[in-house]
Write a structure and sequence with these properties.
By secondary structure, the first copy, chain A, is mostly helical. Chain A contains 5 helices and 2 strands, in the order ααββααα. The longest helix of chain A is centred in the middle third of the chain and has 35 residues. Chains A and B meet through helix 1, helix 3 and helix 5 of A and helix 1, helix 3 and helix 5 of B. Chain A binds a DNA duplex (30 and 30 nucleotides) through helix 2.
Chain lengths: 149, 149
DNA sequence: ATAAAATCTCAAGCGCACTTGAGATCAAGC
DNA sequence: GCTTGATCTCAAGTGCGCTTGAGATTTTAT
């Protein structure tokens, strides 16, 4: 049993079968096919999907992960250095996301505690008074998460 | 200018006008209406929407925020204690989210660094070997974020 | 050999958080 | 008074990340 069926891969990763097919459509994984046209996965693909789930849980959209995973070797199974390379690429972004979350939490604490409660004016809640600029888009404070497209 | 029009509120909060109307439909805010049927907002509503944006940025769905905001007084403008009360309610959930993110980051670091690379078996990546249980749903590691519904 | 289970390919639907558009009404400036 | 801009409602569309369903084919077990 060198290669896995999609059902086996689903069982190993905890993903649903349609979800795995969806990831394929999004370019995250590219299985082989057997004579009958059924998908056949290498063991390394379990790792690949585990990575996807974790990175996705950290807030990365599938499209970004497709880019990152494109950095893994094709043909040869990826080794330690390969995973380390693409992971370090994400580390900076991960740290940034966590930092942003912590900053927001602290702002929340700080402003509730400070008693000013003028959230529309308070520098903590509205750093740089962006709201007064031109009221264009809600980009302040939020970073790029779930930006209205 | 005791009350704000929706356009003014949009300018003050950085939100779009349709977004504010959407929040109303979701039960997050309930403006008064003038004689002509136009929405009129109190100053405290700026705070209310600022709170919504921040909490939303922290990962809370609008439905949850509607619940939380229902804890604010009606008629009387909310005071420091009101905001403090509903914020502390969220604090635990916020801390939990941050902790989860940090844990995932550390797991990522740890397993890339540890050299085992057997993500499907490694206790760090797959605590409790949940994948082998019955392959039902992808609930391990992820918490409740963006759970397939 | 055959019945049952797994897989295949489309296509459509869903939940969330909005955006966009149409057509009508209200408000404000000149 | 009249035009212009803001606002109204309702409906439909968007992007993401899948799920669900239909109908056909392949694989596996007996």
């Amino acid at each position: 049993m060198a290669l896995l069926s999609i059902g086996e891969l689903a069982a190993r990763t905890g993903l649903s079968v349609p979800a795995i097919r969806h990831y394929e459509a999004m370019g995250l994984i590219t299985p082989l096919r057997n004579a009958g046209g059924h998908r056949r996965y290498a063991r390394a693909d379990i790792r690949r999907l585990s990575f996807v789930r974790i990175a996705q849980g950290l807030g990365f959209p599938l499209a970004r992960l497709a880019e990152v995973l494109a950095g893994l070797p094709q043909g040869r199974p990826p080794g330690r250095e390969d995973w380390a390379r693409i992971s370090t690429g994400l580390r900076a972004e991960i740290d940034e996301r966590i930092a942003r979350l912590e900053a927001l939490r602290d702002k929340l604490d700080g402003c509730i505690g400070c008693g000013c409660l003028s959230l529309d004016k308070c520098a903590l809640w509205n750093p740089g008074d962006v709201a007064a600029r031109h009221g264009a888009g809600p980009r302040w404070l939020m970073g790029d998460r779930h930006e209205p497209g």
